[in-house]
């Protein structure tokens, strides 16, 4: 059974670029325009319950396991980190239809993008168009957009694949409008930034140049951003020493190192334990989003 699981996982990774390129996995049409993603769910009553904050699907539980890359919504296909990124953006930014929103390498397909275009002036981008089908092609190190042309940048799990971090941050700062915001997600699994000790690749066979830690904040501030770290309430308590450290797991997260170097003055607890459970934002230490506002 274990060998079968390994083979299945390897096949999924190998074929994912083709699936995205040719749209072999066609998502159902779920966006109707009636349920807005910033509307909070009402009480879900007794028993286990899961609610997707993107498409408003509700059921007993998400598909897969409790993990930032899993807990998939059976309706829209979002995994937990997709939902947390949109939650952070909609909770911290005004809901303005004229807002110019750029998202780099969004995982979700046409129905998600259709929804976003109905709510904002939304554009999706990618660097490798064989992996995703963005509206435009962008290299974060040399963004072919005018100064101050973006109000909000959503960039999930892209920066670790960029060779020159500082150059990319300067370019992002340039294209953001005054007081514009970047919502940045990276796989933050340790306290201090380091390069991979051996070649590392993520789902679309893109190389990882950095395994970031909390010291990324210093680079963000040096590039001209004011930074908040958006986390779960329970994880904020862990980082501040108010709650005990979670038991060691095999998920690759070095929580003791994350605690040791935690930027406690930058933390902004955004999601309580109730919301983290129903939206699938668990375990809490796997969910970190940087809100970076242009100075």
TrEMBL record:
Gene3D superfamilies: Vaccinia Virus protein VP39. InterPro entries: Methyltransf_11, SAM-dependent_MTases_sf. Residues 136-183 form the Methyltransferase type domain. SUPFAM superfamilies: S-adenosyl-L-methionine-dependent methyltransferases. GO terms for molecular function: S-adenosylmethionine-dependent methyltransferase activity. It holds the Pfam family Methyltransf_11. This is Unannotated protein.
């Amino acid at each position: 059974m274990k060998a079968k699981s390994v083979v299945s996982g390897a096949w999924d990774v190998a074929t994912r670029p083709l699936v995205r390129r040719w749209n072999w996995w066609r998502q159902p049409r779920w966006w109707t325009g009636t349920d807005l993603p910033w509307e909070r769910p009402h009480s879900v009553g007794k028993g286990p319950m899961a609610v997707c904050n993107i498409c408003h699907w509700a059921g007993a539980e998400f598909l897969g396991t409790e993990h930032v890359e899993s807990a998939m919504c059976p309706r829209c296909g979002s995994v937990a980190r997709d939902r947390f990124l949109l939650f952070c953006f909609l909770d911290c930014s005004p809901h303005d239809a004229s807002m110019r929103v750029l998202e780099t390498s969004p995982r979700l397909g046409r129905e998600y993008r259709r929804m976003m275009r109905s709510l904002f002036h939304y554009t999706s981008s990618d660097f490798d168009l064989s992996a995703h089908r963005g509206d435009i092609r962008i290299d974060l190190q040399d963004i072919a957009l005018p100064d101050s042309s973006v109000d909000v940048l959503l960039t999930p799990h892209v920066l670790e694949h960029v060779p020159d971090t500082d150059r990319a941050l300067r370019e992002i700062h340039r294209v953001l409008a005054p007081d514009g915001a970047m919502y940045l997600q990276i796989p933050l699994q340790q306290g201090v930034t380091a390069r991979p000790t051996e070649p590392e690749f993520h789902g679309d066979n893109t190389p990882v140049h950095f395994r970031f830690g909390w010291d990324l904040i210093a680079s963000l501030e040096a590039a001209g951003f004011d930074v908040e770290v958006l986390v779960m309430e329970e994880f904020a308590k862990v980082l501040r020493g108010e709650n005990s450290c979670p038991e060691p797991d095999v998920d690759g997260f070095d929580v003791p190192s994350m605690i040791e170097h935690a930027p406690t003055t930058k933390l902004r607890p955004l999601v309580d334990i109730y919301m983290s459970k129903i939206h699938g934002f668990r375990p809490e230490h796997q969910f970190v989003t940087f809100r970076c506002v242009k100075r």
